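Support case: user asked for a sample of complex input and structure output to validate their parser. Sending the pair below.
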Amino acid sequence: MITLNGIRKSFKVAKRKPGAKAALAAMFHREYNIVNAVDGVSFDIPDGEIVGYIGPNGAGKSTSIKVMSGILIPDEGTCTVAGLTPWTDRKRLARRIGAVFGQRTQLWWDVPIIDSFDLLRDIYRTPQDEYKRSRDRLVDALDIGAFINTPLRQVSLGQRMRAELAASLLHSPDILFLDEPTIGLDAVSKLAVRQFIREINAERGVTVLLTTHDMHDIEALTDHIILIGKGRILYNGTMSAVKSSKTAEGLPVEEIVAGLYKEHGL
Amino acid sequence: MSAVKTRTMSTIKDIVRPYVSMFRIQFIGQLQYRAAAWAGISTQFFFGFVFVMMYSAFYGGEAVVVGVPSLQMIISYQWLKQAFLMMVVLWSQDSDLLNQIVSGHVAYSLCRPVDLYSLWASRLFANRVARCALRFAPVLILAFLLPAPYGMIPPPNFGSGLLFIVSLLLGSLVAVGMSMFVYVLTFVTMSREGARLLIGASADFATGLIIPIPLMPDWLQRALALTPFPYVADLPFRIYAGDIAGAAAGAAMGVQAFWVITLGITGWLAFRAVLRRTVVQGG
């Protein structure tokens, strides 16, 4: 269960004016703009659901995920994830959640993938037998046995993403944050990743919060979407309801979502 | 009684597990950079030779000049510096960790149930030991083969050699403790090079890696003695040469241990403070 209630977080961003004179003045006195990255976000995600978390770039998706994983402390609002307040219980929560940030890696570049897995075992202090069971299951489900002894730098992007997914699930978390897990992947790898997300959700009841710009990911995985824009929740409901609305009739899914963004002035 | 002991032992083992494992994986990762090691060995041998020639010239062919350490000690000091440089230099930092901070990849590390300071410190220590493990033997072998007075000589006795190894490891930990402030500052400045260059350039001088500390003026030596800098490289090298021995060596290594602990605690607190105010960059 994930609950967010009135979460607000703003950042101070230094104002930069053009020109040498302004640059010189900025050395003594800097002006700041306040950017409201998330501005009163509330939603609930029940256990065992897959939710598509969508919105344009800079909408506040990553900021809210960082709040939910305990990396950022919000200015206002309450949040519970798996019964814990993320920012006060960061280390305890870390055992309950897994995260994949598609554009970043959690595996070691220079060593075989299996060594990275072993390190994660020790970081989470997982008992060996439990680890072995979990690892074997993931290696099998994601079909990574063939390259598990290869250093990360020598595997393809699709293979890497499969390894990343496995890495984030080794400690058997209840909740998984996926931030653009299919970015840059070819069709075959995309299908494999989606299939796997469906599986862990169906078989192990893992709650999945999926951020993506690829609407086909959403279509393939869930009907529940949360639309965020300019730091606010704009829509929380089903994709099918959006699709069956009059204006959306017969349009491809990308255009429907673009229409949604437009409607909300994004 | 022994059951309690076993349980305590396994708890301790569990607590240190992530950090030991980090050390191991980083050590293995570093050992793959063999080409860099060979390049390092030739560079270090070259620079060692240049420094040795230079100091021989300063001493004007005299083995002993009143008021300064013997030429032989300075030459051993130079070769030790070249052989164990990667253990003690402060400009050598982990660019991957610096990138993680600046790019925001650090988010992943923050999602882990571990103490990030300790995890990174063990990683830095592994870098130092591994880079050095690949380089020191060839440099030392060549240095021992060179004819007197340019070559290196063994420590005066077995005890000095043993104390040297312990003190070198402690010195490397002092370097790690100081290095962690580079990462703390990088969280603040968000610049990959700034803190590294600032600390690296001043530390090169203060640790005695440019001019050996025993050749510095007395007032400067006294001032430096109040800082952790002489405990990085200067102390182990002088213990090797027998310049500091017996009770004096023991006392000095006590101060070294004090610096390891002090830098560890202050660094840990500073790290915690910057993490609290961290804004992880991006979207």
